[in-house]
Amino acid sequence: MTMESPIDLRNCISDRCFRCFPCLSNPARRSSLGLKVALVVLHLIYAGVLFLFDKDLIEKTKREPWYTTLYVLLFVATLAQYFFTACSSPGYVLDAMRADNKTDALFRKTLMTSKQPASSKNGSVVITVDGNQSGRNFLESNAASWTKVVMEMYPPGSSVRSWTCTYCNVVQPPRAKHCHDCDKCVLQFDHHCVWLGTCIGQGNHCRFWLYICEETALCLWTSLLYIEYLNANISKAWWIDVIMISLLVALSISLIFLLLLLLFHSYLVLTNQTTYELVRRRRIPYLRGIPERVYPFSKGACRNLYNFCCARTSIYNLERLPTALELEEKAKPYTCLDVLSCRCCC
Ligand SMILES: [Zn+2]
Ligand SMILES: [Zn+2]
C-alpha cells in the first residue's frame, strides 16, 4: 500500500477537476472565474444579511411588496449587466479587419466600379459585421486592403511600420492599443478591467457605463437600507451591530469609488476620450502637442453622447485623426456667441 503525499493528492484532484472543466486549466480564466464568483457571493451576502436581521424590512415587504420587488429587480439587473459586459467583445482590431474584408468583398461584388471598401461618413469609416469568415490565409490575403483603409486615417506620409502592432502583426487604426492581458489589439482601448476580466473598448464601453450606473444605484439603495436598520435597531444586539456597521463602512467606501468612477466615465463619454488617452496623453504620438483643453475626437457633447449610446457591437467605427485645421478650430477660445450657440454641445 502506497501513501500519497498531500501535494500528489492535490495534483490528482486538480487534474480530475480540469478534465471535467477544461476551461479551469487556464490560470487567467481561473482567476477571472474566481472574481465573478466572489462578486456574486458578495452581493448575496449584503442582501442576505439585510433580509436575515431586518424584521422591519420583512414586514414592509408584506405590506408593500412592490418596494422589495423593485430592489430585487435592480439586484438581478445589476448582476445580469455585469455578466453581459464581462462576456461582450470590446471590439478587437482583428475582428474589424475580418469584417472590413468581408464588407470589401461584398461591396466589390455589388458595385464593380467602386473601390471604397466600407461606407465613409464624416471622415470616419463604418464597417458592418456580416458573417464570420476567418482563417490565417484569409487574413494574409486581405491585409493589404485593411492597411489601405487604416493608413488613410493617418496624415499622408505616415509609416505603416510605426502603426503596426508587433504582437498581432496588424495595422492599428487611430485610438487602438494592444492589450497584454487579452493579447489582442482593441479598438478605442479604454482599460483592461480586472473586475470584469475583459477589456473595455469601443464595443462594450456603453455596457460598462450602464453597469457602473446600476451598481451605484444598488449600492446607494443597500446603504440606505442598512442605515435605516441601524437607526431603528442599534444597541439591541451588539454583535449584529458590529456586522452591520462593518458592512456599511465597506459599502460606503465602494459607493464613493463607484460615484467617482461614474462621474469620470461620464466626462470621458461627453468629451469622446478614453481613460488611456487621458492618462497617457503626453506619450501617445498623435495626441502629443495638442493643448490639454482640446478634445481632438469630440464632435460636441450631444453627438458624442448619441454615438456612445447608439453604438452597435456589429458595427466598427474607425475614426480618422483630426487635421491641423480642425484642431485649430477646436482650440479657438470661447466667445459669448459660442456660449449662446452652445458650441460645446454641437
Ligand atoms: Zn496587438
Ligand atoms: Zn484586455
From TrEMBL:
GO cellular component: endoplasmic reticulum; Golgi apparatus
Sorted UniProt keywords: Acyltransferase, Lipoprotein, Membrane, Palmitate, Transferase, Transmembrane, Transmembrane helix
Keyword Transmembrane: yes
Catalytic activity: L-cysteinyl-[protein] + hexadecanoyl-CoA = S-hexadecanoyl-L-cysteinyl-[protein] + CoA
PROSITE patterns according to UniProt: DHHC
Chief location: membrane
Membrane-topology annotation of the record: Multi-pass membrane protein
Domain Palmitoyltransferase DHHC: 164-280
BP GO annotations: protein targeting to membrane
Similarity comment: Belongs to the DHHC palmitoyltransferase family.
Comment field on protein domains: The DHHC domain is required for palmitoyltransferase activity.
Protein name per its UniProtKB record: S-acyltransferase
Gene source species: Actinidia chinensis var. chinensis (Chinese soft-hair kiwi)
